[in-house]
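Why do we bother with holo predictions? Because pocket geometry can differ from the apo form. Keep that in mind while you read this record for 3-acetylpyridine adenine dinucleotide.
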Amino acid sequence: MTSTQQKQQESGPAEEYDVVVIGAGVSGMYALHHLRDKLGLSVCVFDGASDVGGTWWYNRYPGARVDGPGSPFYGYTFSEELFQEFDWKETQSEWSEVLSYLNFVADRLDLRRDIRFNTWVNDARYDEASQRWTIETDSGVRASATFMICAGGALSTANKPDIPGIHDFAGECYHTGHWPHEPVSFKGKRVAVIGTGSSGVQSIPEIAKEAEQVVVLQRTPQFAFPANNRPLTQDEVAEARKTWDSLKEKMLENLSGFPVDPNPERSALDDSPEQREALYEALWQKGGFSFFLNLYSDIAVSEDANDTLASFVRGKIREIVKDPETADKLMPDHFVITKRPILDDGYFECYNRDNVTLVDLREESIERFTPTSVVTAEQEYPIDMLVLATGFDAISGTLLKLNPVGRDGVSLKDRWQDRFHNYLGMTIAGFPNLFMIHGPGSPGVFYNMPLGAERQLDWIGECLEHIREQNLGAMEPSTESEDAWGAEVDGIANATLFPQTNSWWTGSNVPGKPRYFTAYLAGSLYYMRIDGVAEEGYAGFKFEPAPG
Ligand code: N01
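The structure, written out:
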């Protein structure tokens, strides 16, 4: 008797579906709509939260905003109606606006009737005889399905530092990625913030406006660029709505999935220092994500080109931050944009406030927490609240937490000990009929994420249709195709400066995690690549006939 059959005997029969989807965020919502409403499959989505939204349901810390190219292009493209009818208000929408949009989509597409909220999937096992996945949940609901889609999010499993005494800290303690739904007041409080990535940089200025004291505990100084968030004008919205078809076409053509014209290939070193300065200054003044979409083409590949932009931003930090010692501590020394670029709203400016203190952990590391303070190598800082803006066990962490068990009883943790082996960033050898969205080996955050999810799920939908039409039961990649895909991912990344920097992109933020650059760095070319694999009859995959 297989372990799945044994479990079935113990806790009764499972609900049966064609597809189970884990996660009701941007990707899981589209998975449900596409597979249920377009392909006619029976689908059930499971999510531990009490409503839709995924990352936007959890990340509600002060200052949390879309830090990509922004509205109205942070949304689904599959339905013109959804695009035409939702009123985006700001260029860098606040979390609550994105959540409103996702609620609007869930209502409009009647998604909630097939989503099990407040239901955490804590076990997933593949049964080879039936060629089905069975999942167990904390609510006792069990479900079995031919296909399992893991849409738990690339940035959802919190990375919490293991610092001596941190659990003894008796004040309020919040992780930005799991912010409380009840209002949090900073008034009159001494707040310590660990972390200066996007979440820290977005939240610190907001916290500083209200708190009595803010102590920022910085491990790595960061490059940040002005978000220049502003209300969308009526004209901009009207123009986007009028030209939707061509905008969408542009998004599909653009390397990053955004409606901007491709940049001409031009090295930063071809321009004179004055010309470069003028471009950087213009982009800085304009702000927003366009900064990264309108740069020279070799910033991420040439150390010298990179240095021209890095020096420019360091100069800006020096201009903004009045105290030279604090400015020194804020000077980033990695290659610019090789950590996720950050859009800020008054971040560097907030170090000019009397109530903000910057602690450079490279000079004075944290030794321990007491119930009322954080103690560094230099001094003790009494605090009432601790904010952990320490990021995520990104890309692979959420799936590894579930730790599905595949063929021959092998768990994902065993399979992924040294590297996140996968093919096309979506499938794993030994784990038939399991698909990942925004997983390792896919472009993930290097592409417009809602559009990327749509494109991966469209590919998966076609693949599922192929399996049904051919009366097949299971598909999985060969380990050889995984190795070749891994070499392709590495080859693209290693031609850039990205792998040289410690970041969540390389897994170096989580102790013990395999350190390598996991994303497929060729943007939209990835979608051409996976379409090519489908056209070649799913080259690199092995198929089994359906059970008799
Ligand atoms: O996480 P991060 P994040 N001791 O990993 C530090 C997306 N996002 O939540 O750089 C001391 O970037 C760590 O230091 P270091 C966006 O893609 C989107 O800020 O590893 N410090 C770093 O400073 C983003 O890139 C939005 O040396 C420790 C910080 O904590 C991604 O999410 C908003 C530490 C973590 O930065 C992740 O951003 C926010 C330790 N033990 C985020 N451990 C929106 O679009 C970690 N750090 C809304």
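The pocket of 3-acetylpyridine adenine dinucleotide is lined by residues 59, 64-67, 155, 161, 176, 194-200, 202, 219-220, 340, 361, 389-392, 445, 504, 509 (CB under 6 Å).
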